[in-house]
Amino acid sequence: MPLSRPRTKLHPTALIHPLGENQDELEPPRSPSKISAGCERCRRPSAPSPKRMENKVFMSFAFYSTILILKMYVVAIITGQVRLRKKAFANPEDALRNGGLQYYREDPDVERCRRAHRNDMENIFPFLFLGAIYSLLDPSPAVARIHFFIFCVGRIVHTIAYLLRLKAPTRSVAYSVAQLPCFSMALQILLATTPYW
Amino acid sequence: MPLSRPRTKLHPTALIHPLGENQDELEPPRSPSKISAGCERCRRPSAPSPKRMENKVFMSFAFYSTILILKMYVVAIITGQVRLRKKAFANPEDALRNGGLQYYREDPDVERCRRAHRNDMENIFPFLFLGAIYSLLDPSPAVARIHFFIFCVGRIVHTIAYLLRLKAPTRSVAYSVAQLPCFSMALQILLATTPYW
Amino acid sequence: MPLSRPRTKLHPTALIHPLGENQDELEPPRSPSKISAGCERCRRPSAPSPKRMENKVFMSFAFYSTILILKMYVVAIITGQVRLRKKAFANPEDALRNGGLQYYREDPDVERCRRAHRNDMENIFPFLFLGAIYSLLDPSPAVARIHFFIFCVGRIVHTIAYLLRLKAPTRSVAYSVAQLPCFSMALQILLATTPYW
């Protein structure tokens, strides 16, 4: 594999081992009797591979993505708690179980939680896709991690600013900052895939 | 590949063959004239691989995920049918085509369908991500299938409970049960990827 | 790899190189001293692989998907612009920063943008999943591209019809046309994965 390979090409081991680090595991097991000694050596390289670094990009992406999904689950749990505390239920059957039909109503605090959750869906779900494809484009691990980190922090600040009603424009700034790595990743994906449209 | 490999490492063939089962297909075709006989044999192993089992995890995940996406499409179709039956349209142009502007209005049954659909987005879309990453972590096929099955059944019961207004807390119990495999998968992904944050 | 392989089997290089095209990159680098000349040749095939074509399916999918995600970002930006122009903000803190609490209100144009965005989430996000799995099922590149192209054009027309209030049933026809490749891909995934449920 030439070192001069353009960055927009897929790093193959990034996909073969997006979550692993042992290059030794690349090959499937074979029945030893079928393998000549020469092939055995070339198929089970014991030298550390310089490509191990790149696999970390997908690992890093999976880490930040899962943190953000858990963050969304927390917003869902908070929404449920606010519904119980403010006695504002979305369905008559829920209200009946919690005091009566008069609690089948909207509440501004509940709506706020729902807006935060919806904004997460509008922005975190696309990141899950863009980040996965971008991780396969052999990006620099340091640059990729910066992308993921900025998005993750931006979205956590966005949720805090939303739920705690922080003064504008805190929330919109957090939203805009988090969009920067998304646009960057989308652009890099387009650059790599446009020849194949 | 040693059997003592920790579970948090990626099973390589799980990613190389997430949807296939023929280890024979691992290598790309080469022009025969370039290959020595010894290499030919080691590259085209005919012995069954013990790793075939693991590939089924991703197949199983793809099956349950697609079922749930089709379930969401059904909710969308039901929403459209309820809109036509109750004559409650979200847009003036739709109302005009279906009897007049007075039908540009909200309806509790339509809103119920929309809430069910939105709840699906909030929970099924994260599962599509968590399940895919989890499938690459070399989980036990039996345990993985239990994760997917519980989530799938939980979400189907959730939709039925929502649309048929089943008595509380049927719907919330279905929601909570479906979240258990999601939290389990998220935890396992974090355990595997935290070193790479 | 026999040419008679059923279509429902994964094309291995489609996953190993979903975004790349150089079969030469399949193998990880090894220390040269460990490799016999015969193995070197069989591991670095220089002949063009007939499988390169298939990798383009995933590239093509990534291209159309990213276009659609950018389209969704455009809808989000339009929503923000309409909020500023019509002075209709979803949060009191936003209204306070833009003229006063009286602008914390709903607006039909803003709601229209939000419905368009929500419909995108309901339909484009499932496509991101179905298209990725479908791309790994070794579909015909031409047929796959037709799937992606129809969906992409359908969703762009849907957004234009929504935001410009085109006469019904333009929008619903665009929605229905875009669903056809999704149902087709879902069906093909189920056919391939049902044995592994």
List the helices and strands and how they pair.
The structure is a homotrimer of 197-residue chains.
Chain A: H1 12-16, H2 37-43, H3 52-86, H4 92-97, H5 108-135, H6 141-163, H7 170-193
Helix pairs in contact in A: 3-5, 3-6, 5-6, 5-7, 6-7
Shape of chain A: elongated
Number of helices of chain A: 7
* Elements of chain A, N to C (H/E): HHHHHHH
Q: Report how far the terminal alpha carbons of chain A are from each other.
A: 26 Å
**Residue ranges of chain A: pLDDT <50 for 5 or more in a row?**
1-54
Helix content of chain A: 55-70%
- Structural class, from secondary structure content of chain A? mainly alpha
β-strand percent of chain A reads: under 5%
Please count the beta strands of chain A (DSSP E, at least 2 residues each).
0
Mean pLDDT of chain A: 80
Largest sheet of chain A: none
Give the C-alpha Rg of chain A: 23 Å
Chain pair sharing the greatest interface: A-B, 49 and 55 residues
Oligomer: homotrimer
